[in-house]
Design brief:
about 475 residues, alpha/beta, Rossmann fold, Elongation Factor Tu (Ef-tu), domain 3, 4 domains, 6-stranded antiparallel sheet, 18 helices, 16 strands, globular
Length: about 475
């Protein structure tokens, strides 16, 4: 379901520093015993392995997570088995997501994936029939073994030179003009240029119609124009009077970041200064919080200046402390008490829900995982994944496009006057400023709330603030 390039990016976002791709054909006939002894123990010298709750390995899938633990334990290899994550009462699994993609239910597949389903493959030369039809397209063959989306036409968004455009993607064998192998053929709105030999990310948004053979090229041309309009309406959204989606910032909007950060500070002091008098430990924790400035710092300067002030000559190297921070801080994620209930009530009202957050992929995605919000979210955009950061309106537009709604039909709730409020305004969304800590700084002419519960009154039209 992902290219090698995409998999590497995901693993990097998880904090994985080295990626080893085993030759499946070479090891598929290994017995579970041989796989553990020769591959994990002797070749990789593994000390700890992680697997999913439904993991199968060895010839004919004869081994499972229990088998793995039984074989690894005598060799001194620790085994961690991840628990299932359930959405709509069913565990999320690769096979479940694959079935959804193969049936054309891209929207539900995206919800289970936690990110958009994107084809990120090299563009190859074709028959250049698109130019003859008046609708130039790019062709991307689907690699062997890659999941086959249901053949047909999809509304899509295409990223070219860091910007997105809406498109129409046909998955299949092009029955009217013919194609030897399944490929993705995409028309990109308002684009002219040469993309051959480039990797172009094409995100499927919604299945529009099955693949169809037309009686003539003229009939095909007419249908292409209809598909283009349908895709535009799907991606850009039709202008509606009501709200269709509510999007949120994460830190200091859904999460009480100061509380979460102080919990991390407790861990830090307990680990590195266990014998420090409590009064001094409390001073240092407060110093850590104030200097952190809500996360808007250069972390090298942040840690090194603090250690210098403390006179901590035996401090571990910065890269070790920072790496530990990236992994540990998300473990102390602390949502505002009303956050989950408010999101549930918004979904009960038929609204789409999402998060747009700035920050490194590893840290922000881990926070969302720990928070337990994932099953409630229809879309998540982390700036570190997209290389686009708030307040750039582009990241807001990508979220709306991924949901298939107009920016004008979206509420965006955030606490930062520039990154959140100005960014949302620039994209055409309706911003709401949440001031959970009673700050004096307030954006002008923008609705302000003090807690998330007040958002429900705004959505219901009963707000009098």
């Amino acid at each position: 379901m992902m290219s090698a390039k995409q998999k590497k990016a995901v693993f990097k976002g998880l904090g994985v520093e080295e990626w080893i791709l085993a030759d499946f054909e070479e090891i598929r006939e290994y017995s579970p015993e041989r796989f553990v002894k020769e591959f994990l123990h002797e070749t990789l010298d593994a000390r700890r392995v992680c697997c999913g709750f439904n993991y199968r390995f060895g010839r004919d899938g004869s081994g499972n997570a229990d088998t793995l633990r039984a074989l690894c334990t005598p060799l001194g290899i620790e085994v961690a088995v991840s628990h299932p994550v359930s959405i709509d009462g069913q565990p999320v699994s690769a096979s479940r997501i694959r079935r959804l993609i193969e049936s054309g239910d891209i929207q539900q597949a995206t919800r289970l994936l936690g990110h958009s389903f994107t084809l990120d493959m090299k563009v190859v030369g074709g028959q250049r029939l698109g130019h003859l039809l008046g609708a130039p397209t790019i062709n991307q063959p689907l690699p062997p073994g890659f999941v086959r989306p249901k053949f047909g036409v999809y509304a899509s968004i295409v990223e070219v030179d860091g910007k997105i455009a809406h498109g129409v993607t046909n998955i299949g064998v092009r029955p009217t003009v013919g194609s030897a192998e399944p490929l993705a053929e995409t028309w990109i709105a308002d684009f002219e240029g040469d993309l051959y030999d480039k990797n172009v990310p094409v995100t499927l948004i919604k299945f529009l119609r099955p693949e169809k053979k037309f009686n003539s090229v003229a009939e095909l041309q007419k249908q292409i124009l209809c598909d283009a309009q349908h895709a535009r309406d799907t991606i850009m959204g039709k202008a509606v009077s009501g709200i269709r989606a509510v999007l949120f910032d994460f830190d200091d909007t859904l999460q009480n970041r100061p509380v979460a950060f102080m919990r991390y500070c407790d861990f830090f002091m307990h680990k590195y200064f266990p014998n420090l008098p409590q009064e001094e430990a409390n001073k240092r924790k407060q110093d850590m919080l104030v200097r952190n400035n809500g996360g808007y710092v250069n972390y090298m300067d942040y840690f090194l200046s603090m250690f210098e002030k403390w006179g901590w000559e035996e401090a571990p190297p910065f890269h070790y402390i920072f790496r530990e921070f990236q992994f540990r801080f998300p473990e102390y994620t602390q949502l505002f008490p009303e956050a989950i209930e408010v999101l549930k009530k918004l979904k009960e009202r038929g609204l789409l829900i999402g998060v747009i957050t700035n920050g490194p992929s590893l840290t922000q995605n881990r926070k969302l995982d720990v928070s337990g919000l994932r099953p409630l979210l229809d879309i998540v955009l982390v700036s570190g994944d997209h290389k686009v950061h708030k307040p750039n309106p582009e990241i807001f537009r990508r979220a709306a496009a991924g949901l298939g709604v107009a920016c004008q039909s979206c509420i965006y709730v955030g606490d930062h006057p520039v990154n959140d409020i100005q960014g949302a305004l620039g994209a055409g969304m309706k911003p709401i400023y949440i001031n959970a800590f009673g700050r004096d700084e307030r954006p002008e002419n923008v609705t302000e709330i003090m807690n998330l519960n007040q958002l429900l009154d705004i959505v219901d039209g009963s707000w009098v603030g």
